[in-house]
């Protein structure tokens, strides 16, 4: 299945197969024994509840018979029996929930780790976002959708198991009662084996068909609601992350209008969803309400004629409702099934889009056309390289470049000339290219214009993407002093929002400190010092070239002073009139 930006309604069976495929990943994993053990505990608790319900059905006969006979001793005895049954109900209900929650968190932890491993395998997450039919809001799919999938699949599967167990248990009771209690119609008695069972089945079949017919559009509506909610949440997060530029540009009113437009989309689909749910609820509520007393209506003539005791009537009515409920599982769970179908589509869509991007990434690696080679001598070789946009337009063309250890390359050009796309291509994350590109580097590092600081302490930001244990306090102090941020050394273990606390220039200085600390053999700087003044920019580039003497440094900058550091620049022009240069 491809990514699902515009999903259509799917049949129930394919969705169930997709859900089973996702669930099988965990139950066949290295945690399978724990998974099956916890599931067995959930099922055992459910069987206890069914067993207690069966005993209670027989208890109803004795209890109401005691009421009819006004037998005080029997009434008190049955009351104490009911108290004992209550203990079973409480224990079964509590432990079923407890073991289900335990299974949920372990399953969620395993599945989240697996999907994160695939999504963050190299640049797969970036490649997936570039696809024309790329997945929307991967953050929601990794958090809410995974949680919803696990909770829903457990609730629905355990509910189905309970329905089957009740059906098996109560069909025998109801069949026996049907043989003891003849059907009375128009004053005539009819002996129909198991007629109460057939009545419950017919009632459930009709209800299931009608419910599915009127509720089928709910799947697409639920999916669309999740998508629009995620879009609105993404817009709110984006506003929080860009609060300063919005405030500086007095953009609050425009942002408010944009957010309200997104919320209006939520409301519009919500009205369609609530109308459809209203229609389904009208039928299902009516179905449930009248089914509760349908068996009493069928058996009432026999009871009032004296041919049936009150206890048997109440027992038969209870057994009928249990059988009817088991047969009507789809009717009573239809709204949940519609939500589950939408969740399955979102989770499977994320997994399939990630797998497609991963396969494409691996295919490029196998062709060895731009993937870093950790064993060859450090170098970058380009031969007739054409870089394109996702729509196929050529954005840059390079004939030949050959760089070895200690070489430098300065790339300049007007906006739109493809400088960033070229840097992404050399870094190995841009798939839209033709020609030959070979990169050999054991420790590459690419720094973009927008400096990235991971969540956590300043030490973690400096060590990223390496482990913090590899960075000593003295080394951190030294590199911070080198880039003019020595005052932050005493705060290196503070876990604050450094992305908001530091200015753009300070964040770029911190990125350069990271380069000095990690000592890459290939350093890509895509306007990584653009927020600094010209003098500071030149000084920091000289520092990098001096402190990383054996590294290949490729820098994009508009500062002419960097020519003295890196040599004559490679000037990129727009695709309409590209300039090809030979550099070796």
Topology:
Layout: H1 12-27, H2 32-69, H3 72-119, H4 124-130, H5 138-180, E1 183-185, E2 188-190, H6 195-215, H7 218-241, H8 243-248, H9 252-291, H10 294-304, H11 310-327, H12 329-332, H13 334-367, E3 379-388, E4 394-404, E5 408-413, H14 419-427, E6 433-440, E7 444-447, H15 458-463, H16 473-482, H17 498-501, H18 504-518, E8 522-526, H19 534-547, E9 552-556, H20 563-566, E10 570-572, E11 582-583
Helix pairs in contact: 1-13, 2-3, 2-5, 2-11, 3-5, 4-13, 5-11, 5-13, 6-9, 6-11, 7-9, 7-13, 10-11, 16-18
Description:
This protein is an alpha/beta fold and 584 residues long. The chain has 20 helices and eleven strands. It has helices spanning 12-27, 32-69, 72-119, 124-130, 138-180, 195-215, 218-241, 243-248, 252-291, 294-304, 310-327, 329-332, 334-367, 419-427, 458-463, 473-482, 498-501, 504-518, 534-547, 563-566; strands at residues 183-185, 188-190, 379-388, 394-404, 408-413, 433-440, 444-447, 522-526, 552-556, 570-572, 582-583. It has a five-stranded parallel sheet with strand order 7-8-9-5-10, sandwiched between helices. Strand 1 and strand 2 form a beta hairpin. The longest helix has 48 residues, at 72-119. The two termini are 46 Å apart. The model is unreliable at 1-10, 368-372 and 577-584 (pLDDT under 50).
């Amino acid at each position: 299945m491809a990514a699902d930006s515009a999903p259509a309604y799917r049949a129930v069976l394919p969705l169930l197969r997709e859900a089973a495929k996702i669930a099988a990943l965990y139950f066949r994993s290295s945690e399978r024994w724990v998974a099956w053990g916890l599931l067995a505990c959930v099922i055992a608790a459910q069987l206890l509840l069914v067993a207690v319900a069966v005993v209670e059905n027989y208890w109803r006969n004795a209890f109401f018979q005691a009421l009819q006979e006004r037998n005080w001793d029997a009434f008190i005895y049955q009351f104490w029996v009911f108290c004992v049954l209550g203990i079973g109900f409480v224990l079964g209900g509590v432990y079923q929930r407890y073991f289900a929650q335990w299974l949920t968190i372990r399953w969620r932890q395993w599945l989240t780790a697996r999907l994160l491993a695939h999504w963050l395998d190299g640049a797969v997450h970036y490649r997936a976002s570039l696809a024309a039919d790329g997945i929307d809001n991967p953050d929601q799919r990794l958090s809410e959708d995974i949680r919803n999938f696990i909770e829903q699949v457990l609730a629905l599967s355990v509910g189905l198991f309970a329905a089957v167990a009740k059906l098996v248990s109560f069909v025998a009771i109801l069949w026996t009662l049907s043989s003891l209690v003849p059907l009375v119609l128009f004053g005539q008695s009819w002996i129909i084996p198991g007629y109460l069972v057939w009545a419950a089945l017919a009632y459930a079949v009709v209800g299931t068909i009608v419910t599915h017919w009127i509720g089928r559009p709910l799947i697409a509506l639920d999916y669309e609601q999740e998508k629009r909610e995620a879009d609105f949440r993404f817009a709110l997060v984006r506003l929080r992350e860009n609060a300063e530029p919005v405030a500086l540009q007095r953009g609050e009113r425009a942002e408010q209008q944009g957010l309200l437009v997104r919320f209006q989309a939520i409301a519009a689909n919500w009205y369609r969803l609530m109308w459809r749910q209203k229609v389904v609820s009208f039928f299902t509520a009516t179905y449930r309400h009248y089914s509760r007393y349908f068996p009493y209506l069928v058996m009432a003539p026999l009871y009032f004629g004296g041919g049936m005791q009150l206890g048997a009537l109440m027992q038969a009515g209870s057994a009928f409702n249990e059988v009817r409920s088991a047969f009507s599982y789809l009717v009573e769970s239809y709204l949940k099934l519609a939500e589950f179908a939408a969740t399955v589509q979102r989770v499977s869509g994320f997994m399939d889009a990630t797998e497609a991007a991963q396969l494409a990434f691996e295919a490029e690696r196998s062709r060895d056309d731009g993937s870093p080679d950790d064993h060859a001598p450090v170098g970058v070789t380009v031969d007739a390289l054409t870089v394109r946009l996702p729509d196929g337009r050529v954005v840059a063309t390079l004939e030949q470049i050959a760089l070895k250890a200690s070489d430098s390359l300065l790339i300049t050009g007007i906006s739109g000339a493809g400088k960033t796309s070229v840097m992404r291509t050399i870094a190995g994350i841009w798939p839209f290219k033709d020609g030959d590109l070979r990169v050999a580097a054991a420790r590459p590092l690419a720094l973009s214009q927008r400096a990235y600081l991971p969540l956590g302490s300043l030490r973690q930001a400096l060590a990223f993407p390496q482990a913090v244990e590899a960075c000593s306090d003295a080394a951190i102090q030294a590199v911070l002093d080198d880039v003019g941020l020595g005052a932050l050394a005493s705060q290196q273990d503070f876990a604050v929002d450094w992305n908001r606390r530091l200015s753009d220039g300070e964040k770029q200085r911190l990125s350069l400190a990271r380069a000095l600390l990690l000592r890459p053999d290939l350093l890509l700087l895509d306007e990584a010092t653009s927020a600094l003044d010209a003098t500071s920019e030149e000084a920091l580039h000289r520092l990098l070239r001096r402190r990383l003497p054996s590294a290949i440094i490729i820098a994009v900058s508009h500062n002419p002073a960097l020519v003295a550091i890196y040599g004559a620049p490679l000037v990129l022009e727009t695709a309409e009139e590209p300039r090809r240069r030979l550099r070796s």
